[in-house]
UniProtKB/TrEMBL annotation:
This is Uncharacterized protein. Keywords: Coiled coil. Residues 24-72 form a coiled coil.
Amino acid sequence: NELKAAFDDYKNKYALQVDLVKTLEEVEARLEGVIKERDLLLEQVKARDEQIAGLEKKLRTVEATAITEEEKKIDPDGAYAG
C-alpha cells in the first residue's frame, strides 16, 4: 500500500513536470514572436527617426529661404545685409 502511494506520487509529479515542460515550450514560442515583433518595431522607430531628422533639416532650409526672401522684400538693395 505504501509502495502504491509512492508510485502515485511519482506519477503525479511526472505529469506535473510534463505539463510544465509543455507550458515552458509554449511560452518560449510566444516570447520568440514577441521578440521578432519588438525588433520589427525598433526598425520602424529607427526609420521614423531618420525621416524626422530629414524633415527637420528640410524645414530649417525652407525657413532660411523664407527669411531671405522676406529680407529681399523689405530691403531690396541689400543695404542692411550682413
